[in-house]
Each structure stands twice: as structure tokens, then as C-alpha cells.
Model the fold of this input.
Amino acid sequence: MVDTLRHKGMRARLIEKIRNKGISDERVLQAMLNIPRHFFMPKGFDERAYQDNAFPIGAEQTISQPFTVAFQTMLLDVQPKEKVLEIGTGSGYQSAVLLEMGAKVFTIERHKVLYLSAQKRLTQLGYAPYCFFGDGFLGMPTYGPFDKIIITAGAPHIPQALKEQLKMGGTIVIPVNGGKAQKMIAGIKVSETEFEYTDFGNFAFVPMLKGKV
Ligand code: SAH
Done:
């Protein structure tokens, strides 16, 4: 795949659009400006890669809408070298944004095909993520605790294992079910058993499902 001047131009316009929708974190915008999103989409949909929409990536899953990726990443407030756990690798695009910002990324996907292709794609782009095939409800206890945790599928509730694997003072960003749409929740771990939650309104995600396939 190539990243032409045309792609770069379309990408710059997309980033401006996202900025105008309220994303003010320059580090997030810069990371997204650096990453060729069309590499993460099925071949032949280059124009669609630079529209602010979710898009099917196979296995009935989608690459998240760019604004949503930017919004979740902004809430996560990732700092270089931080350990970030992501649930729902999908295409690997959100992982790339976190990696581009200097995070150490541990990402879990329950679809074997998506796990394999995202791992290959991220490695080809020169990133060094820790990709796992498994069930995100369980997290990744052997590699925790994590500074930040991000869930990119609509969760029925905040999984207990993920709460436990977050460092004290750490942030979890998770879309939680509230009917058809999800509420974007950011939680800060303030004690072993307590979190302070903020609700950032409605978003739409594919569901977080149990087990692996
Ligand atoms: N972050 C992705 C978005 C993918 S959509 C991207 O940037 O492209 C959400 C993904 O979560 C899907 O690929 C889906 O298969 C995965 N998923 C759903 N439930 C899961 C679970 N319990 N554990 C791990 N992955 C899960």
C-alpha cells in the first residue's frame, strides 16, 4: 500500500474536521495525521477511509469512526511509555494511534482473523504492539497493572477484571450499554474499590461479546 499526496491531503482535511468537532488535544490530532487510515480498511475504499464514518472490516465488525477514536484517545490522556490495555483490536487503527503517541500497547481481540491481520498490519507499519487473541472481559492479568484501559466495543457493564488491572489513579474509557446507543464513560480509580465516573454522552459501537471465536 502507498500513502500518496492525495491520501495525505484527504487526511489533513479529515483531521481539520475532527478538530472543528471539538477535539483539542494536538497530540491526538498529530498522531492521526501521521497514520494512513486507508491501510486499515479493505482495499479500494481509500476515499471512504478519510470520511468521518465507521466502516465494515469483516467478521461483522467495524473500524471506529475517526471522531470516536479521537474522543476516546483524548479522554485517555495517554503519555509516552504508559502501559495501555485495549479491548477490541479490530483493524488495529486505535492501537496505532496509541502506539504513535508513544504508549506501550497491549491489545486483545476475540476474532482470530482480525487478531492475525491487525498484528501483521501493525508490525508492517513498524509498530511493536503486544497483540493477544482472547476474551477482553478477562483482561490481561499477567501484563498488568495498566496505566490506562480503553474498550472499543459496547460493554454491558464495566468488567471487574479490568477494574482490578488498572493502576491507582489510572483511567478507564469504556462505552457502556444504555439501550441501542452506549454512554461514553471515563472512570478514574481513586481507591482499590472506588472509581469516579464521568459520562460523556451517547456513542454507537458494535457489542462486546463473551469468549473468543
Ligand atoms: N479498535 C478497533 C475497533 C474495532 S470494533 C479499531 O480501531 O478498528 C470492536 C472490536 O471488539 C471488534 O473487532 C470485536 O471483535 C472486538 N470484541 C468484541 N468483544 C470482545 C471481547 N470480549 N474481547 C476482545 N475483543 C472483543
Summary: The radius of gyration is 16 Å. The pocket of S-adenosyl-L-homocysteine is lined by residues 61-64, 87-88, 90-91, 93-94, 108-111, 114, 135-137, 152-153, 206, 208-209 (CB under 6 Å). The mean pLDDT is 97. The chain is about 30% helix and 25% strand.
